[in-house]
Structures are given as structure tokens and as C-alpha cells.
Amino acid sequence: MRRSSECGSAEHLISRRQALGTLAGAAVGGFGLSSLMQEAVAADMKQKGKQVLFIWLDGGMSQFESWDPKPDSEFGGPFRSIKTSVPGTHISELMPDTAKIMHHLAVVRSMSTKDPNHSTGVPRMQRGDPANRGVPYPYLGAAVTKLLGFPANGLPPYIWIKPGSAGFIYQEAGFLGSKYGALALGDGKPPIHIHRPESVTDETDAARHELRRLANARFRLDRRDSEVDAYEQSYEMAVQLMKRKELFDNTRLPAKDIERYGTHPLGRHLLQARVLLEAGVQFVKVTSYHWDTHGDNFNMSQQMVPQIDKPFAAIVNDLEDRGMLDNVVVVLMSEFGRTPTINSRIGRDHWPDAWSLALAGAGINRGALIGKTTKDGAWVDGEGYDVGDLFHTVFRALGINPNKAHYDNNGQPLPIVRDDCFAIDGALA
């Protein structure tokens, strides 16, 4: 049964089940960075050990009830703004824990991203809205994996923690090829069959591996490489994770950590993300659904916003305390924001024209408040930023120069991000 607060449009249903579930699209193997481009990227890298935590609040978090409150405006809502650890910067009272870590964050209040639909806005935001080159571009996690290279620790480089189904989502790799896809952990649980039966000896297991290799070689004769590559990559990832089963043993987690992060799905998944980042996973995406508050926005926000406030503050603090925040780029965002006006169901609708997101960590200007909106929050007051600008910012924070790095599409160089965009002014340290 559909929640009354959710969007009733066909695009919304597609967004939930397709754009963020099956992520339809064909992955074509055989593409990568040319040797010259690899050298250029390597020369520009400041560090090879950079990581990313990408927190996606699917549906559209309200900026009015989070980063950009307007309590004195006509449609500002019932919630107050509160002081933060950055003098002069205020956020919603629904985010008291985040207010205490504002000095670690850069908040962009002037995002203006054009697309008001879930089905097209979600892939646009996660792919960086590249110019149409006739090929499906990779999602951010796959792009980072390609540009930074596979880490030497043997762990899957791109893990996606999400409610619901699991599996190897090779479609996220786009034209880069299946091996750059995302290993999805449904509800944070490890891949099935991660525990080898005690009855299977090392010798038997080795024989099974050889049989699988021979079968795949025969299977590959009549099929696209990408189909077999996706299967082989998911199998190899499972093999590596079998050696690291402790990453999924929640009994090892201190009770105080579980309490700090919260026992709701988003809290549990962000704590799982911290464990994976500590282990060396290069890119971790955490998705939370049901942020589409077309109805009962204020009560829904009162329930939902604290679910990101507490664990977000906890993971930023933990990364800082462990000396990891200088190495991990943190992005917290949705596909758009919410309208300044209130609809007949006391909800806020889709609004890409003026909304907010937060950044933290490696290469990010800590304590920065970037951009502003008009008094009623309807429009950006001054310069607005699109998703291409965000991708420029993230890549540069990772030590990747978007003006020098290119993908190689069978000899054709393709830009890794729109060349008509630039890094967000003031976001980089």
C-alpha cells in the first residue's frame, strides 16, 4: 500500500523500482582509460588511498526542515532554526547533533538542478548529467572506482548498502564495463552463501573453481563478455568477502556505537558503512528511501530528519576521531529539494530550483556555508550550482583533475564530467 506522503506519479514508481533498483541499462565491456590518460590521472593524484561515503536520501529531503530553514517566511513551517558550531550559521532544530559538527561540513544552499522527476532526476544526479555521447555513463561510485583504480586490499571497491534486494548491480558501471559495478548489500547483510559449508574441503572448492572457469569460457563463446564479466566479478567479490566475514558480525560492535547511530535502518546502515570504510572499501553508498513528503510534510520531517541527524553526526565524528576524515569525501544529498509552498495535503512537492546538500572530509572547506536562497526559499539568490559542478568538486577533492582525466571509449576520449561546469566556489579547501 502506497504511503499517503509519497508521490503518486508514474515517475515515482519507476524511480523506486527501476532507477534505484534494477538500474536498467546495458553495460558494455572493453572500455577504460587510455595509458596516456592513466598517466595523467596518476600524476595528478595527491593520494591513492582516498575513499568516498555517498549518502543518498531518495525522494527529496526538505531543505526547509534541514539545511536552509526559513522560520520567518510565509511557508517556513513550525520548526525553529538553531545555532551551530559555526558562528552565524543556523540549521533546523530537527538536526541538533549535526549542528554540533557544522565546523566539519560545507553546506551548499544554492543547488539548482532543473529536473523535478524521480525517474530522470535520480540517474542525472548520480551520473553527473554528462552530455549525450551515445553511451550510458557510469554512476559516481563506478566512476570513482575507475579513476582511482582498484585498491590493493582485495575488497570490493564499490559497495552499496540499501534496504530491500541485494546483488551485483553491474548496470551502475555504464560503458566502463561490468567489473566496475556496485555490490549491493540488501539491508546491510552480506551476500548469500558467504559461509562455505564445512563439508566442502579446500580441494573440492578448488575443483569447483576450475569447473566454473571452464564453464564460463564455454559460456562466453556465444554471449557478450559483459554478461560473463558481471557473473565472474560478483563471484570473486563473494570469495573475497568470505575471507572477511568479521565485517558483517554485528556482535563485535560496541553497544554504545549501536545506540549512537540508532537501530532504525539508516542508522544501522551508516554504522555498517563506517565498518566498511575502516576496512578499506573505496566507495560506500548508503541509500534511505521514503523522503518524498507530498503529504503531511511536517510530521513526516519530524520523524525522518532525526534519523539522518544522529547517525550522520556520529559517522562524521567517528571518521574525524579515527583520523580518516582527511581521507574520506562525504556527500549527503537527494535528487532535489521541496517546494516553499505547502500543498492541499500539507506537503511539499518536488523542487529542483533551489535546495541544499552537505559535503565533508578530504579536500573540503570545513565550516563553509555556500550560497543562499531568497527570503521565502523559492529561488537561489546569486549563483546556482548544477550536478556537473558537484562532480567537478568531488573529483577535485579526490585529487582528480577533470580537465585532464578522460575515459577511453575504444580510442575515443570522453570527458569524465561536463566541461561546461566548474567546481563549486568555496567548497574546496
Brief summary of the model shown:
By secondary structure, the chain is α/β, with parallel strands linked by helices. Helix content is 33%, strand content 16%.
**CATH class designation:** Alpha Beta
The total number of structural domains is: 1
Overall shape: globular
Helix and strand pattern: HHEEEHEHHEEEHHHHEHEEEEEHEE
Give Rg in angstroms: 21 Å
Q: Sheet with the most strands?
A: 9 strands, mixed
CATH topology, which one?
Answer: Alkaline Phosphatase, subunit A
Major beta sheet, strand line-up: 6-7-5-8-1-9-12-4-13
On the 0 to 100 scale, the average pLDDT is 87
The total of beta strands comes to 15
Distance between the amino and carboxyl termini: 46 Å
What is the structural class?
alpha/beta
Helix content range: 25-40%
What is the architecture at the second tier of CATH? 3-Layer(aba) Sandwich
Low-confidence stretches: 10-47
* % residues in beta strands: 15-25%
Helical stretch count? 11
Walk me through what this model shows.
This protein has 429 residues and is α/β, with parallel strands linked by helices. The protein has one domain: Alkaline Phosphatase, subunit A, CATH 3.40.720. It has eleven helices and 15 strands. The chain starts with 9 loop residues before the first helix and ends in a 14-residue tail after the last strand.
